[in-house]
Write a structure and sequence with these properties.
The protein is of the alpha/beta class. It has 13 helices and 14 strands. The structure holds guanosine-5'-triphosphate and magnesium ion.
């Protein structure tokens, strides 16, 4: 009888794929270990892992290091440890569920055996938060976009298409659900007139509240200068919003880590290049027919800002299906969520039912139609997605 071939392991391995990855020496803007801060809980967890591995005789203490994932290329992490940044593989100790979920921003215990130039990930330390979205439909899964993030910059391009209230509310709901702060960054402000600009700012404040942090940018005008730039800067002052690269920097102070979330072509990498003052990241043209990009950025990577914190550049997200973010919805729309508590029916859809306090308050002028519509759309979508999901899929 023929010997059965060994089933190939699906664990990401070094080798051919590794050769195709960009050399770490070419990635100059990755933050150094000193720029990143593990929480006290993560440090304690690290010490516990070290003590355990040493007690088991599995590793020597000087082979182990605390590290942070600063870049992820097709599942392969680059990890910053004190004194060095290197690529890592996954130790046989980790289960598939664990290693397939490593995200940029994760803190790890890494082992670098004597004479090796690659590390082995021995443990993923508990996260303070993870920014996750639902990928796929009924048989989908949660995809962690980044871990241990202080704030999320929701990037939206200004232009003919106008700003989407749904996209704003949807992004904010996902961000608030993971316990992170949300700020809005408008790019390409050079493409709209004063009226459209005013309307876009007003929409953000209506949907997300007047306290939301908002930055107006135009990488194009900041580079070109001139009267148009002066005019836009004056507009930013008039509208009471932050301006330009300095405004973005103010949102990402030293010691903090932010991620940019936005559609392909929104201008995320262009903005990061402007912040760095050089063309470190690849950017791509948008399609004229629908103003969307072609997924130029493919890796998730941290970029260290001079004089400020760290921003994660990530591929643009085409769609943001939502499921299970009810807590986030209530955080973005606290007034509507509170009114909903008073409805006669517990499963009130706030559209036609008698005794609906949400509709009652809306008629009394408590919230705008745009705001209510954004809330209702998300609430309905989450309800339908939860009902349509395969029973054996864990949300
Ligand atoms: N007019 C104008 N165009 C801009 C501005 N910023 C970026 N763009 C253009 O928008 C296009 C897309 O920019 P990218 O920075 O590659 O977009 P991205 O969000 O990183 O896209 P992905 O990596 O695909 O997710 C490029 O052609 C940029 O030149 C701006 O301030 N004004
Ligand atoms: Mg990009």
């Amino acid at each position: 009888m023929a010997k059965r071939a060994r089933k190939p392991s699906r664990r990401p391995q070094a080798g051919r794929v590794q050769e195709a990855l960009p050399a770490l020496s070419s990635l100059t803007e990755l933050p150094e270990f000193e720029k990143l801060t593990a929480s006290a809980t993560q440090r304690e967890a690290y010490e516990e892992v070290v003590a355990r591995l040493v007690a088991e005789g599995f590793a020597q203490a000087d082979e182990l290091a605390l590290g942070c994932v600063v870049r992820l290329d097709r599942g392969f992490p680059a990890v910053a440890c004190e004194g060095a940044t290197f690529r890592c593989e996954f130790s046989a100790r980790l289960t598939k569920g664990e290693y397939s979920k490593v995200a940029v921003g994760d803190w790890l215990c890494v082992r670098v055996p004597q004479g090796h130039d690659m590390g082995l990930i021995e443990a993923i330390l508990p996260r303070t938060n993870d920014l996750a979205r639902w990928r796929g439909n009924a048989r989908g899964e949660r995809q962690t976009l980044a871990a241990n993030i202080d704030s999320v910059l929701v990037v939206q391009a200004l232009g003919e298409r106008g700003v989407s209230a749904d996209r704003l509310a949807r992004s904010a709901m996902i961000v608030r659900d993971c316990g992170s702060e949300v700020a809005i960054v408008f790019t390409k402000a050079d493409r709209v007139d004063d009226e459209a600009l005013g309307a876009a700012v007003a929409l953000v404040r209506d949907i997300l509240g007047s306290g939301v942090k908002l930055v107006l940018t135009s990488s194009e005008l900041e580079r070109a200068g001139g009267e148009a730039l002066q005019h836009l800067m004056a507009q930013a002052v008039e509208l009471g919003v932050l301006w330009g690269t300095a405004g973005v920097q103010a949102l990402v102070p030293k010691g903090s880590v932010a991620i940019m979330l936005g559609e392909s072509g929104a201008g995320k990498s262009t903005l990061l290049n402007a912040l760095l003052g050089r063309e470190a990241l690849e950017t791509g043209a948008v399609r004229e027919s629908d103003d969307t990009g072609r997924h130029t950025t493919v890796a998730r990577r941290m970029v260290s800002l001079p004089g400020a914190g760290v921003i994660v550049d990530a591929p643009g997200l085409r769609s943001l299906p939502v499921i299970g973010h009810e807590r986030g919805l209530a955080l973005v729309f606290p007034d509507i969520a509170e009114a909903a508590q008073g409805c006669r029916f517990r499963d009130c859809t706030h559209t036609h039912e008698p005794g609906c306090v949400v509709q009652e308050e809306f008629r009394a002028g408590a919230f705008s139609k745009e705001r209510l519509d954004a809330y209702l759309l998300l609430a309905r979508e989450m309800r339908e997605n939860a009902n349509g999901i395969d029973p054996d899929v864990v949300i």
